[in-house]
């Protein structure tokens, strides 16, 4: 069986991805990121429209601060970034690889018709590039 060589983000994106709402507590988010081994997560509204992104780096200091002061951690909406770099399912893997060079995000939410349809990580891109190179 010949496996299709990946060409677009659609070929490699994770469709059933971890996502949170703005009402999620930072503590719950941190547990989810650890469980799914992700450096961040898309933030969506009730209709699954992307409204922001939050990373481990965004929350690390606040979780530490809440431990020191023994208080409740804030909600995701208080710390999330609303200006989010996204990609589309039809984007070329090599084009997205170029965009991911440098200190850009490690995860790109994949959006189609304003709705979150998946995520793609640097690791996904690297594995795809290695697959392309072998063929």
From TrEMBL:
Q: Can you name the source organism?
A: Vreelandella zhaodongensis
SUPFAM superfamilies per UniProt: CBS-domain pair
Protein's name in the database: CBS domain-containing protein
Is Repeat found in the keyword set? yes
In terms of PROSITE patterns, this protein maps to: CBS
PANTHER family xrefs? CBS DOMAIN-CONTAINING PROTEIN CBSX2, CHLOROPLASTIC, CBS DOMAIN-CONTAINING PROTEIN DDB_G0289609
Q: Which SMART domains match?
A: CBS
Domain (CBS): give its ranges. Answer: 13-72, 80-135
User: InterPro entries, per this entry?
Assistant: CBS_bac (IPR044729), CBS_dom (IPR000644), CBS_dom_sf (IPR046342), CBS_domain-containing (IPR051462)
Record key words, sorted: CBS domain, Repeat
């Amino acid at each position: 069986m010949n496996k299709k060589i990946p060409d677009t983000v659609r070929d490699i994106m994770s469709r059933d991805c971890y996502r949170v709402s703005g009402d999620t507590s930072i503590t719950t988010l941190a547990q989810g990121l650890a469980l799914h081994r992700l450096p961040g997560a898309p933030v969506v509204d009730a209709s699954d429209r992307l409204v922001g992104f939050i990373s481990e780096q965004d929350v690390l200091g606040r979780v530490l601060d809440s431990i020191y002061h023994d208080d409740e951690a804030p909600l995701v909406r208080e710390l999330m970034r609303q200006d989010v770099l996204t990609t589309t399912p039809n984007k070329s893997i090599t084009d997205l690889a170029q965009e991911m060079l440098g200190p850009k995000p490690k995860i790109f939410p994949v959006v189609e018709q304003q709705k979150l349809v998946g995520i793609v990580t640097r690791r996904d891109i690297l594995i795809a590039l290695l697959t392309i190179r072998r063929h």
